[in-house]
Amino acid sequence: MMRDKWCGEINESHVGLNASIAGWVNSRRDHGGLIFIDLRDRSGIVQVVFNPEIDAKAHELAHKIRNEYVLLIKGEVRKRPSGTENPSIPTGGVEVITKELKILNECKPLPFMIEDETDAGEFLRLKHRYLDMRRPLIQRNIILRHKTTKAVRNYLNLNEFLEIETPVLTKSTPEGARDYLVPSRLNPGHFYALPQSPQLFKQILMISGLERYYQIVKCFRDEDLRADRQPEFTQIDLEMSFVVEEDVMRLIEEMMKCIFKDVLEQELITPFIRLSYKEAIDRFGTDKPDLRFSLELEDVRDIVKNSSFQVFLDVLSKGGIVKGINAKGCAGYSRKEIDDLTQEVKTFGAKGLAWIKIKNGFESPITKFFPAETLKKLADKLEAEDGDLLLFVADTEKVVNDSLARLRNEFGKRLNLIKDSEYKFAWITDFPLLEWNDEEKRYEAMHHPFTSPREEDIEKLLSLDFSNLELFTAHCSLFTALKARAYDIVLNGHEIGGGSIRINRRYIQNKMFEVLGISHREAEEKFGFLLEALDYGAPPHGGIALGLDRLVMILTGENSIRDVIAFPKTQKAVCPLSNAPSIVDEKQIKELNIKIDAKIDE
RNA sequence: GGGGUGGUAGUUCAGUUGGUUAGAACGCCGGCCUGUCACGCCGGAGGUCGCGGGUUCGAGCCCCGUCCACCCCGCCA
After folding, report:
1. What CA–CA distance (Å, rounded) separates A387 from A148?
2. Sheet holding A541-547, edge to edge
3. For strand B, which nucleotides have at least one atom less than 7 Å from a protein CB?
4. Which residues in A502-602 belong to E strands, given as ranges?
5. Alpha-carbon span A504 to A537, nearest angstrom
6. A479 falls in which pLDDT band (50, 70, 90)?
7. For residue range A513-561, what is the model confidence (pLDDT) as tens digits?
C-alpha cells in the first residue's frame, strides 16, 4: 500500500508517529515560508505543513502544488501549536509535518470548485461527474446508498431470501410504461425489451418453488423524467410464497427498521399508519399524502349547496365536488399571491380558485352569494380563525383533489409545518382494482394486471360479462367497486414502493385480461409463459418493489434522485458525462436490419 | 406534446429607458509573505452576451425561430 493512514482518521493518538497519507489538494495556503495544504481523501481532510527548515526540497516542490493535485505525503503527525487548532474539522487538533512529498499527478484548473456548497450548474456537474463526486456531500450520499443496500441485503438474507438475477434482455409487454427496445441481430425484426420491472420473472420464481426472492435491480421505463424519475432506476424487488398482505407489510416494516437503525441510527415505530385509498384521497387528495402535517382537505358540498354561487352549483349539478383547505394565517395574502396559487391549480385543470379571507368577518368577492349562516358553517368546517385564508376548488373529483393536494403540500412548506429529519411512513391499501382510461376507452389495472382482486370480489369479477361494451359501461359502478389486494408504501409524501398479492389461478388471470380488453391471443403471445406456469401448481404469492433512489433521496434529505445516483441523466435522458445516447455506425444499424427514419442532427 | 424559469468571463451572477471601452465576486497567472485554515497584500490575463434571423443609425437588452438545462402538467401498470 502506498499509504498507511486515511486523512480523516489522523488524530491526537498518532502524535509523534510517522504517517503516509495520500489524496487530493483541497486547498493550499502558501505563505512563502510555511506552506499549508489541506489534503482530502474519502475519509476527510487533514492539514499538511511544509517547512523549509524541516525539508527544504519538499518545501520548494510544494510551491507548484495547485488544487486537486494528487499527493503522497510522508511525515510526522504533530499536535498543532497552541492557538492554531481548527475546531471546525475533526482533525483540526493535529497536522502532518512533511518529510517527503511525492506529486502523484497534477491537475488542470477546474471547471468548478470542489466544495460542498457548490453553486455550479447541474449540467456542468454531471459533465464532470468525477469532480462533482469528489465533493464530500455527494460522497456521503453514495456511501449512505451503499449502507442502505447493505442493510437491505443483511435483513433479507437473514430472512431466508435468495438473491436471484433475472434477465435484462427480456420481452416487451403491452401494459404499463413505454419499453426501451433492443434489436436482436440474430433474429431480424425482433426486439428485446429492457425490463420495466422483473414482475413476471419473480412470479415464475415463486412458481419454481424458490419461496423467497429478492434483487436490487435496475429497471427501465421510457417515459418523461422528473426530479424523482429517471429512465433507469433501481428497485429493491422481492417476492414471497404463501403470504397475505399483512406478511409482506410486516416484513417491509422490519426491513425499514433495520435500514433506519443501520443508516440513520434511528428507531422507527411500527406498525406504520394504514390508510385506505379512499380515506387518503378524501382527507389529503392524494394516495401519497405527506403525513408530517395535518392541513386536511374538507368536503364542503353539503354546505355550499345552500348558496347562489353558480360556479359551485353548476359543478355540483354535474356530479363534481367542492373541497376546501384552510391556509392558516394567510389572510394577508395579496392579489398576486392568490393569483399565483390559482395558476398553480390551473395546471391540474382547475378553472379557478375561490377564496375567503377571515378578517374581522368574511372578505371575498364571493361572499355575496352566501347566506351568513352558510359562511359560518364553512368557517366552522375548516376550523377557521381570524387571520386565516380559506381556499376552495370546485370541479371533477380528480381536478379538485389534485389541486388541493398540491396546495396542501405548498402550505405545508410555506407555513413551516414540516420538520426536516422527521419520517412519516404510511401504507395505502384497498386500491381499486381497475381504473378507467378515457383515451383508450377501456379499463386498466391500477396496479398491474397480475394483482389479485380481493377474495370477496373474485366471484363478482367472474360473474360479469365484459364481452360487450354497453354492458361494460352499464356496470361501471360495479367495476370501480372492485378492490385490489395491493398496497403502496408512502414516506413523507413520496411513493417509495408498491406491491400486491398476485393472481395465482389461471382462470382468474384469464378473466383479468378479458376485463382489460386484452384478447386471448394477445395474452398468450405476451404472457403465455406465465399463464402456462399458473397451470402447474402456482402457489399463492405476493411481493413488493421499493424505489431505492427515492428512498435514499429521502434518507439523505436531497430533493432530486440525481443527487443519489452516481451517473444520472438529464431531463432529455442524456448522460452529460458519456454523451449517451449517440448515433452509431451505419454498419451497426445495418447488421440489426434496421432503417432509421428520422432527421438526425450530428 | 404543453406551461413556467433560466442561458453574459473558467464558475456564480449584475448589467438602468436600446447608446462610448460589457462589470463584480470567486477561480486562474505572476510577485511578496513562517501559523494559515474563506490566509493576506500588489499586479495581470480572461467575453462568439447559447445559436440563427429580424427591427433599429445603434441590440446583452426589443421581436421571431431554435437548442440546452431545471421545475411542473400530460405520461410513468
Report:
1. 45
2. A162-163, A212-220, A232-241, A541-547, A494-501, A486-491, A425-429, A273-276
3. 1-2, 10-13, 26-29, 32-40, 68-77
4. 541-547
5. 9
6. confident
7. 988 888 889 899 889 999 999 999 999 999 999 999 999 999 999 999 9
Nucleotide nearest to A495 (CA to C1'): B76
Closest residue to B67 (CA to C1') is A601
Measuring from the CA of residue A199 to each C1' atom, give the nucleotide at the shortest distance: B77
Amino acid at A551: L
Q: How far apart are CA A506 and CA A531, in angstroms?
A: 6
Closest among A43, A33, A35 to A9, alpha carbons compared: A43
Confidence of residue A428 (pLDDT cuts 50, 70, 90): very high
Which residue approaches B36 most closely, CA to C1'? Answer: A29
Give the range among A113-122, A219-228, A317-326 with minimum mean pLDDT.
A113-122
The 10s digit of each residue's pLDDT in A159-172 is 999 999 999 999 98
* Grid cell in block for residue A324: 376546501
Closest residue to B69 by CA to C1' distance?
Answer: A123
What's the CA A568/C1' B69 distance, rounded, in angstroms? 14
CA distance A573 to A220: 12
Which nucleotide is the nearest neighbour of A545, by CA and C1'?
Answer: B77
Quote the CA–CA distance of A290 and A410 in Å, as a whole number: 11
Q: Please report where in the chains the cell 423467497 appears, as a residue.
A: A212
| The residue type at A342 | T
Q: Are A161 and A149 in contact (CB under 8 A)?
A: no
Query: Which residue's CA lies closest to nucleotide B41 at its C1' atom?
Result: A31
Looking only at the bridges linking them, the beta strands covering A162-163 and A212-220 are parallel
d(CA A548, CA A149): 8
Q: Please give the sequence-ordered ranges of beta strands (E in DSSP) within A221-297, or none if there are none.
A: 232-241, 273-276
